[in-house]
């Protein structure tokens, strides 16, 4: 397999740095090819602004989506962005690795998504009309590839459980797993989460490292989260609501978009 690991931690000697090395060593031991986008080390520019689109004249109002579409169509995206496109198209598996910061990814990684996910590459793909709403949520440029998150948290596993004060981890990660990875077509594997890591000892580290090695060994065979495909018949178009007959009265929230029944069949 060809694996792209996008790494978002400012310190190579961090726990995240150590876990990244564990993951890479195990993947390479399994014969996989690994490339890394180390966002802090590469001083990734995280904010979308006018300088991303030098062909826009100074007196034109800057509209990010429109500019992105024009630059993608005319092949004038900046070199740092097109280099990431090349890596994403090369890889058959994408891993995003980050510490949970304020319940989500660090800003630099969000900025990688904002800039790399260009119009025409990650969104605005396929026909858009009243009966077909584009190739997305299970379809799109990255269909057929796998993706997963490696996340560390200060909070305990219980804090992220169904009744935990932080909210369930699958809900917190839903906007990334579903909105960022499933959207352009990835099959999304369950995340690897290491909880309560701030004062982890050597034994705890050894345990986390072994769990991570196991996830790397099973990257190709782990069943993805069974999200419902937008164009698979479960949603009404153009309202994009889940068909009422697929919902139990009172059901709501992110879990609706996971087809547990289909997964069990
Ligand atoms: P490090 O600080 O590098 O390491 C943690 C511990 O791991 C070290 O103290 C050490 O004991 C051990 N360790 C490190 N390297 C090794 C090694 N090679 N071998 C053995 N042991 C090692 N947490 C939440 O749960 N929810 C949040 O919303 C949240 N928001 C945050 C926001 C910010 C801005 C920050 C800074 C932190 C936040 N945290 C939050 C906590 C954060 O998620 C954790 O601090 C982070 O996940 C720890 O990962 P790290 O790589 O930075 O760990």
Quickly describe the structure.
With 265 residues, this protein is of the alpha/beta class.
SSE blueprint and pairings:
Layout: E1 2-7, H1 15-29, E2 33-38, H2 64-73, H3 79-90, E3 93-99, H4 107-116, E4 146-152, H5 169-172, H6 174-182, E5 187-188, E6 192-194, H7 202-217, H8 260-264
Bound molecules: flavin-adenine dinucleotide (FAD).
Describe this structure in words.
With 265 residues, the protein is of the alpha/beta class. It has one domain: Rossmann fold (3-Layer(aba) Sandwich), CATH 3.40.50.360. Helices cover 31% and strands 12% of the residues. The chain has helices spanning 15-29, 64-73, 79-90, 107-116, 169-172, 174-182, 202-217, 260-264, and strands at residues 2-7, 33-38, 93-99, 146-152, 187-188, 192-194. Strands 1, 2, 3, 4, 5 and 6 form a six-stranded parallel beta sheet that branches. Helix 1 (15-29) packs parallel to helix 7 (202-217). The longest helix is centred in the last third of the chain and has 16 residues, at 202-217. It is globular and about 55 Å long. The two termini are 28 Å apart. The structure holds flavin-adenine dinucleotide. Residues 9, 14-16, 18, 99-103, 152-155, 197-200, 202, 205 line the site of flavin-adenine dinucleotide. The site of flavin-adenine dinucleotide (FAD) has 20 residues, from helix 1 and helix 7. InterPro entries: Flavodoxin_fold, Flavoprotein-like_sf, NAD(P)H_dehydrogenase_qn. Residues 1-215 form the Flavodoxin-like fold domain. It comes from Ensifer canadensis. Belongs to the NAD(P)H dehydrogenase (quinone) family. GO terms for molecular function: NAD(P)H dehydrogenase (quinone) activity.
């Amino acid at each position: 397999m060809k694996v792209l690991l996008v790494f978002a931690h400012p310190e190579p000697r961090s726990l995240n740095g150590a876990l990244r090395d564990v993951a890479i060593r195990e993947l390479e031991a399994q014969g996989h090819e690994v490339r890394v986008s180390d966002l802090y080390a590469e001083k990734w520019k995280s904010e979308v602004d006018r300088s991303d689109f030098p062909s826009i004249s100074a007196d034109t109002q800057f509209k990010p989506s429109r500019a992105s579409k024009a630059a993608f169509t005319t092949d004038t995206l900046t070199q740092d962005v097109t280099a990431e496109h090349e890596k994403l198209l090369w890889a058959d598996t994408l891993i995003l690795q980050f510490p949970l910061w304020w319940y989500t990814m660090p800003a630099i990684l969000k900025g990688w998504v904002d800039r790399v996910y260009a119009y025409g590459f990650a969104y605005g793909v396929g026909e858009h009309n009243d009966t077909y709403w584009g190739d997305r949520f299970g379809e799109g440029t990255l269909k057929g590839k796998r993706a997963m998150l490696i996340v560390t948290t200060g909070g305990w596993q219980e804090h992220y459980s169904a009744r935990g004060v932080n909210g369930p981890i699958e809900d917190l990660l839903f906007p990334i797993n579903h909105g960022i990875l499933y959207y352009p077509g990835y099959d999304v594997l369950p995340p690897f989460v290491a909880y309560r890591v701030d004062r982890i000892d050597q034994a705890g580290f050894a345990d986390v490292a072994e769990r991570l090695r196991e996830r790397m060994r099973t990257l190709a065979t782990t069943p993805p989260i069974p999200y419902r495909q937008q164009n698979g018949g479960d949603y009404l178009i153009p309202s994009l609501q889940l068909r009422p007959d697929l919902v139990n009265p009172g059901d709501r929230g992110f879990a609706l978009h996971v087809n547990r029944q289909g997964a069990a069949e």
